Amino acid sequence: MRIPVAHSRIRRYQRGTWSGPDDIVVVEEPLEIRLGHGPMEDRKEMRLSVTMRTPGQDEELALGFIFTEGIIIAFSEVLRVEYCENVKEEERGNVVRVELHPDVQLDQARWQRNFYTTSSCGVCGKTSIEAVHAQRVRTIRPWGPVDPAVVTALPGRMREAQVIYKHTGGIHAAALFDREGKLLLMREDVGRHNAVDKVIGAWLLSGRSDPAGDPGQPATNNCQLLVSGRAGFELVQKCIMAGLPLMAAVGAPSSLALQLARDSGLTLIGFLSGDRFNMYSPAGELDTN
User: Fold this and answer.
1) What mean pLDDT, rounded, does the chain reach?
2) Active site residue 121
3) Which of 121, 124, 223, 239 is flagged as catalytic?
4) Above 60 in pLDDT, residue 95?
5) Cα angle for residues 242, 246, 250 (degrees, 5° grid)
6) From CA 282, how far away is CA 289, in angstroms rounded?
7) Can you tell me whether residue 183 is helix, strand or coil?
8) Would you tell me how many other CB atoms lie within 10 Å of the CB of residue 94?
9) Which of 13, 47, 117, 251 is the most buried (most CB within 10 A)?
10) CA 204 to chain centre
11) Domain 148-285: which topology?
12) CATH architecture of the domain covering 29-134
């Protein structure tokens, strides 16, 4: 098992004196995600993406990533996820290959360019939003009235579960809750988007996010996601692709994220702290009185 933290010697200045204790820092390493696709007798490999992440739950990260990017629409389209062994020694443990079902049609030309989900991708906002709508296959069911008592309790419950954050203070988190605010899943990672992908990947592995999954398990349309940072476009996009109806963030939303949320019917909450928050969408729920 990869260790997500490392020890480092530091010099600490506090109240006029220096000390030299050890400190604990978050590990950050690249993860390359590859896809195996095509007929079983003629498999091909595609190098899909490299992301900087905190080691751990790499299978969940890879699955969540290809799911929220629209490459797969259900866990049943994946045969397995495994670490690549035929790599350089320094790459060992940092390259995973997702084997897709032979029936999955992969348009390689479509994925050769950089993904549109980053704010520096160089495409216009309208094009980005149209791309999300073109790919998503789940319709978001409106969340309905927001219960302030439930929403304001979420950050504290997420912090209680953040073991790595308690030791380092330098890691993001994403957490999935049910309607009553019960914590279902929580993942930490040096990248906000990775934490969300890990949560969604774990949800996929449980079978609960698959439309054909266990009907006895709660569906994503009854869940809400909390993220530790701002509500950027790429995080809102991932929620929409997963069919999540409510996303809350301790930070601010961007204009493009807000537009996408409103166009998709996602209830978006920002600046969640203490007993206060801002609700930005959907437009029909803003007149709360």
Assistant:
1) 84
2) yes
3) 121
4) yes
5) 110
6) 15
7) strand
8) 19
9) 117
10) 12
11) Cytidine Deaminase; domain 2 (3.40.140)
12) Roll (3.10)
